Amino acid sequence: MDSIISVQDVSMHFRMDKNHTTSLKEWVVSWLKGKQQYETFQALNHVSFEVQKGEILGIVGRNGAGKSTLLKAISGIYRPTSGKVITAGRVAPMLELGSGFDPELSGHDNIFLNGAILGFSEEFLKTKYDDIVAFSELGDFIYQPTKTYSSGMMMRLAFSVATIIEPEILIVDEILAVGDAPFQEKSRARMMELMSGGTTVLFVSHNLDQIRTMCDRALWLDHGEVRMIGETKEVCDAYEQM
Amino acid sequence: MNMAQFRQSFGGKLLLFSLAFFAVIGLFYWVVAEDWTMSAVETDTVSQSILLPAGSVAQQEFDSIVDGLEWLSVTPHFETSHPAGTATFTICDDQGVQLWQKSVDVSELESDRENVIRIEPYLPDMQDRSLALRVEPGETGMALWAGTSVSAGKFDINVKTEGLMVNGEALAANLVMKTGGHLLLSGAKYIWPVAAVLWAAMMGLCVITRRDINSKKNTLLTKVVRVYEQYRYLIKQLVVRDFRVKYKSSSLGVAWSVLNPLLTMVVYLFVFSTLFQSNVEYFPVYLLSGIVLFNSFSESTNLGLNSIVGNSALITKVYMPKMIYPLSKVLSSFINLCISFVPLLLVMLIVGIPFKKSLLLLPVVIVLLFMLCLGMSLLLATMNVFFRDTQFLWGVMVMLLNFLSPIFYPESIIPEQFLFIYRLNPIYQLLFFIRSIIINGVSPTPASYLYCILTSAVPLLIGIWIFRRNQDRFVLYL
Asked: How many A-B residue pairs are in contact by the CB < 8 A criterion?
């Protein structure tokens, strides 16, 4: 099988300004003092792995282990300090509650806006529109501005957009537990459907049960390094014993 | 292959593009050719007149500043009775070779006024030639006004040369005369060759880019094409979103795009009319063109400045080419600009400025202003990520620019020694441009186009360069 994501020796350093300068005055002052003081923080340290097409990779690790940084490097938001990420498909992050939504626009308009943000064309979104609305169970609320939505409605819409359009690579960062119980069940079913349908999923969660039930393989990140990668069960067991 | 398929094919696209390109150039040529080939010129006139005795043969030397000499004027003086007979006007070159001669019925001339004598057909290739005009009055003689100083615009310049000879004797004076004609500007004849070169270059780039895309090479152009293909729908969505949201909660909605410049104009008119109106022709249009242009600059740069910081929620969550944010903001503000041309045309109609074909050059202004605004937005958005003070600083800068551009005051009050600073101000160049095409109804000179392009393209290139250099670090500072 072809690997759809190839992470090659990726390191990510953050330069933390000791005195975080965001004003011109501060910058000039620290420049005049002769040195800007930086502290480097190594979020990822020579991380390499491959993900096959259609695979579901769970990523586990403590807070601050670099999970989110890794996902951002894969989706292109961060450019690695060194190393390379090669992706052979469209990466769709599951946007956090409505961050791609404009509260003034209706749900209908937001579906198209959000789809466009994820890089899809108008024609494609039109063919998927009915499915998205149906899945979100919003009914006529779809024509109301999203600022009137409850957070549950918002989440249902966001989930529907991200999953119905069937991206090649889906990134899920801790957001499966939303909506009421039936919708949670439905979304889990949809995820399963996606995964069997060939979508590659990167799945970050602190809920090891979810990882165990859903993922083919797991990756354990520890202090920015790959501690372990392999069978979900082995990795999860090792992580739990830690 | 049917028509639709042909239009979708690469060759078809190239052909359609070429046709459109040359249609636009043809239209452009039609609009500007006349203004770029000929510009009417008058020489200055002599004041402080003295009277020549009748019966003398006057010969006046002059340098032609025009290329094609079309007319000259003299100012005769008749004491009481109108003389009869014919006066002969002759123009010779400095070798004494006669170039043109015309006999004029003296009774047709009017006393103490400029009498224009047309030279038909006009004398070509006259620029910078030393010429002489000889006036032989008719049998009864004719008095002509002459003087010792030349009035040039506001000031009198003393004429040093003794240009006037009467009956072979040199006098320290000059005949009261004007010459007129047209200057041949070579601009128009370069339009087609330059367009052809541009076209060839674009065709070459298209073919190369297509080859690179097919062989999956990664060049700047293939990247641009890919990004455009993938994200043009997003750009459209963002622009439409901004436009919809802007007026969503106001009851007059889009009408504000029309009302806002109009009301600003009324305020300015009210405040400044007593101060400046006497100097400026069509002051309302002069004002409104300045307001529309400057408002658009101010609005789009302010939107662009906040486009990265204001979208931080999105930028930290999903990847897209970051230039899309400022680009979509400037685009949506330019929809506003296009709408605010409606009141401009309306006011033109009201004050009675005729609609000339030069109005078709408005898109040129829009494109140039767009380049400027996008460039500034890219620059400011980058700066604002690293120094949030930029937004406050820019507010002050915009106000300063507002006063440094002739928006509500006439250009003529700018002191000559500061004019070079004004020339560096892109807003000044664009104001000059738009007023030339709407108020004067003529295309600006090729030099003016060049100034405008330079002062707009340089900020754009700097903006793109700075933005691209820093865009990978944006996300770390949001």
From this structure: 76
- Checking if the pLDDT of A55 tops 80, the result is yes
The amino acid occupying position A62 is R
Rounded to a whole number of angstroms, the distance from the CA of A79 to the nearest CA of chain B is 6
Q: What is the mean pLDDT of residues A178-191?
A: 78
In the predicted structure, residue A181 carries a pLDDT above the cut 70: yes
> B262-299 pLDDT, tens per residue?
898 888 888 877 766 556 778 889 989 999 999 999 99
A17 at interface of B, judged by CB pairs closer than 8 A: no
Give me the percent of chain B exceeding a pLDDT of 90.
Answer: 31
B374-392, pLDDT tens digit by residue?
999 999 999 999 888 899 9
Question: What are chain B's domains?
Answer: 43-184 (2.60.120), 218-477 (no CATH)
Confidence at residue B157, expressed as pLDDT on a 0 to 100 scale: 39
Who among B237, B393, B472 is closest to A116 (CB)?
B237
Query: Which domains are delineated in chain A?
Result: 3-89+204-241 (3.40.50.300)
Q: Would you call A37 an interface residue with chain B, using a CB distance cutoff of 8 Å?
A: no
Q: Using a CB–CB cutoff of 8 Å, tell me whether B155 touches chain A.
A: no
Q: Quick one: closest CA in A to B391, which residue?
A: A23
Give me the residue from B315, B390, B476 closest to A14, CB to CB. B476
Average pLDDT over residues B65-77: 80
- For residue A111, give the chain B residue with the closest CA: B237
